[in-house]
Design a protein that fits this description.
By secondary structure, the chain is α+β, with helices and mostly antiparallel strands. It is 17% helix and 23% strand. The chain contains three helices and seven strands, in the order ββαββαβαββ. It starts with 8 loop residues before the first strand and ends in a 19-residue tail after the last strand.
Length: 143
């Protein structure tokens, strides 16, 4: 099955163009924090069916349970694509890559910066309310 082009982003890894995307709306299991954050990637312009699905060791940022999460950045996507190619992902075949906690540091080149969803935003793991962005009160012009 091919990955939808709408909502995907292009990335070039070692001279080869790929498209990647995160599902826009969480499935019920992802929203409740039971399933991990995942994204898919495929070579740009390839035949359908050569999709890479990457599962990460954290929840989606929009999970309802307040479980920790990370931001998927191009550096992580490129690292996951390289790892999948090393492990045998080839055009014409679907492939699943499961990333664990130790792999994240290797793929990112630094320890991951986890975030914890909170009512008014995201707090860095180990942080507190003082790390939230300041709120702005909006008043009507009728005061």
């Amino acid at each position: 099955m091919a990955m939808p082009k709408k909502g995907s982003r292009l990335i070039t890894v070692d001279g080869v163009a790929f498209r990647w995307r995160v599902r826009h709306k969480p499935a019920y299991c992802q929203g409740s924090g039971w399933s991990p954050l995942s994204f898919s990637a495929e070579r740009a312009g390839e035949e359908p069916g050569s999709v890479l699905v990457v599962s990460l060791p954290c929840a989606r940022p929009d999970n309802w349970a307040g479980a920790r999460t990370i931001t998927i950045r191009p550096r992580l996507v490129a690292g996951c694509i390289r790892r999948a190619l090393e492990q045998g992902w080839s055009p014409g075949s679907a492939f699943t890559l499961t990333v664990d906690e130790d792999d994240l540091t290797t793929l990112l080149g630094e320890p991951p910066q986890y975030l914890v969803p909170f009512l008014w935003g995201m707090i860095p793991e180990g942080g507190g309310v003082e790390d939230l962005p300041r709120c702005v009160q909006i008043r009507s012009g009728e005061d």
